[in-house]
Amino acid sequence: MQVDGKHYRSIWFDDDSATVRIIDQRWLPHRFLIVELTSRKSFCDAIRDMWVRGAPLIGAAAAYGVAAEMQNDASDSALDEVCNELQQTRPTAVNLVWALNHMRQLLQGLPEQQRAAIAMKRAHEICDEDVECNRQIGLNGLQIIKNIAENKDVGQPVNILTHCNAGWLATVDWGTATSPIYHAAQADIRVHVWVDETRPRNQGAQLTAWEMDSHGISHQLIVDNAGGHLMQHGDVDLVIVGTDRTAANGDVCNKIGTYLKALAAKDNEIPFYVALPSPTIDWNITNGIAEIPIEERDGQEVTHVWGKLEDGNLASVQISPDGTAAGNPAFDVTPGRLVTGLITERGVAPATSEGLAAMFPKFSG
Predict the structure, then answer these.
(1) Is 146 domain-assigned?
(2) CA–CA separation, 166 vs 300, rounded Å?
């Protein structure tokens, strides 16, 4: 997508330096920094400490992490070690495990001298596949927005509420929940996006708002608890969110607070869609609420906020009393019964076991 009129992916291989580069998202929206990932530690740090985040992007970064390791040491022990270390970085996003299992299975049976080239080639392909997958999600979601637009008064925008950042910064390009929005804008359909802040890390305020602004899409930042109020007053036509892991029964795990948005949407008869690429589906989990592991992050993300001071410097500021303990579950699970549909690269599926199995028969069996 676009940054100051120039196209970027969130992660890419730079041919000149022969290194993987990323947009370091910790500094957005106030600073746009590109960093190189060159070592096993740098890839682990980038995923664990959220230089990169979002399930599809985490998977892509993990694939590149394995490929980069193979350039230095293509032994069986190095392959096992890098996969094991990367898998420990984030517990919830299933794309991480998918990418690591895929790379391990691909490389294990190959001679060591072939592993570096094949691993890097496959990492490139995984990124390209993610881009195309998200483009297709956007086209499938575009039809939903078109249908709503056709029933609006002339000149009135389609009002879309989203949660957290399921934008191109959370994928390699296009995004999941934002892809239909970008496609709608390209089709000259008027949209207005309600961007909730998404405490505690504020990825909505910092990342989604930055994306919308970069692409000239009408948007407003709201506090997390304003969504229900807007729905009650007819100011939301549609909710689209992303997901870090989708259970085989249609339950979706996404950034904390998603469940509350789904409840409010249900109460106000507003369609609630989840956009996801198929690698985000965990076919081994049949009950998301009971089985999806929920990452508990550092309480300082709750007790402190990060932002720009009046003098332009960036700082972390404490907002709670000294000594106050903070709980920080990073995700919650929304039952499939609250989800209007799952927007995938193959189409829109009901959020049920039967719906997913019909859309992806090869994987569900």
Answers:
(1) no
(2) 23
CA dihedral for 119, 121, 122, 124, sign (positive or negative): positive
pLDDT single digits (tens) 54-70: 989 999 999 999 999 99
| Phi, psi dihedrals of residue 216, rounded to the nearest 5° | 65, 30
**Contact predicate 104/78, CB 8 Å:** no
Catalytic residue numbers, as ranges? 244
Residue type, 70: M
**Does 334 lie in the same domain as 262?**
yes
| DSSP code of residue 208 | I
The average pLDDT across 270-281 equals 96
Alpha carbon distances (Å) from 196 to 152, 163, 255: 23, 6, 12
For residue 226, the domain's CATH number is 3.40.50.10470
Q: How far is CA 298 from CA 50, 55, 207, 261, 330, in A?
A: 12, 19, 20, 24, 10
166 in Cβ contact with 178 (< 8 Å): yes
Nearest to 198 by CA among 54, 93, 323: 54
Q: Are 66 and 47 in contact (CB under 8 A)?
A: no
Whose tokens are 């007053």? That residue is 233
Q: Domain limits at 257?
A: 152-364
* Cβ 246 vs Cβ 252: under 8 Å: yes
Query: Percentage of the chain with pLDDT > 70?
Result: 99
Place of tokens 């970064």: 61
